[in-house]
């Protein structure tokens, strides 16, 4: 099996495990399930700078929603954190969108909020526009599908942004 196929299998495995974890938490808790991951392109999703970003995202989400992380995982598909909140689902999503838009590293945060039927509340459900590309500001999904930017360009830009933020905190 080549490296690309191995990477795709790990990503799919990670998604399945994440869906199972969300289902378990949904059965155990009465509140709204929140799953935090990072938007990181390419095969290497576990890295010191990404872990730093993940911790910043976790702290920001905990502070914004006044909740604590229930569980963290670090499969090859990337860092994950799970939370439960008793707040209204639309209120949670608005707070998550604010973090994704306003935090200096927020473009890297992927905060999914789940209804009880395990479907996700989307940006569009709140009348918000789709996410923008890290590099050019166009629709992120379109850029990704068309491969407008190389993985190397994206990763270089992301790591530079994380380092700038980290250095500004010191």
Throw out a few tags for this protein:
170 residues; alpha+beta; Alpha-Beta Plaits; four-stranded antiparallel β-sheet; globular; transferase; EC 2.7.7.61; citrate lyase holo-[acyl-carrier protein] synthase
Helix count, per DSSP? Answer: 5
Helix-strand pattern, N to C?
HEHEEHEHH
CATH fold label: Alpha-Beta Plaits
DSSP E strands, number: 4
Strand residues, percent? 5-15%
Strand order of the largest sheet: 2-3-1-4
Quickly give the structural class. alpha+beta
Describe the main β-sheet briefly: 4 strands, antiparallel
Q: Whole-number radius of gyration?
A: 16 Å
What is the overall pLDDT average? Answer: 92
Low-confidence runs: none
Count of individual domains: 1
CATH architecture classification name: 2-Layer Sandwich
Helical residue percent band: 40-55%
Q: Could you say which overall geometry the principal axes of the C-alpha atoms support?
A: globular
Taking the alpha carbons of the first and last residues, their distance comes to: 44 Å
CATH top-level class: Alpha Beta
Please sum up the structure shown.
By secondary structure, the chain is of the alpha+beta class. It is 49% helix and 13% strand. It contains 5 helices and 4 strands.
């Amino acid at each position: 099996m080549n490296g690309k196929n191995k990477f795709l299998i790990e990503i799919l495995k990670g998604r399945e495990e994440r869906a199972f974890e969300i289902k378990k938490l949904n059965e155990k808790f009465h509140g709204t399930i929140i799953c935090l991951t990072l938007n990181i392109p390419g095969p290497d999703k576990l890295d010191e700078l990404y872990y730093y970003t993940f911790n910043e995202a976790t702290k920001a989400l905990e502070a914004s929603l006044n909740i604590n992380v229930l569980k963290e995982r670090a499969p090859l598909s990337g860092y994950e954190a799970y939370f439960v909140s008793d707040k209204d689902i639309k209120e949670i999503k608005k707070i998550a969108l604010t973090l994704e838009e306003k935090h200096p590293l927020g473009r890297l945060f992927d905060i999914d909020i789940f209804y009880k039927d395990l479907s996700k509340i989307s940006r569009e459900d709140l009348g918000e526009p789709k996410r923008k590309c890290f590099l050019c500001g166009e629709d992120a999904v379109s850029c990704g599908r068309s491969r407008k930017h190389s993985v190397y360009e994206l990763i270089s830009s992301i790591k530079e942004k994380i380092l700038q933020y980290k250095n500004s905190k010191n």
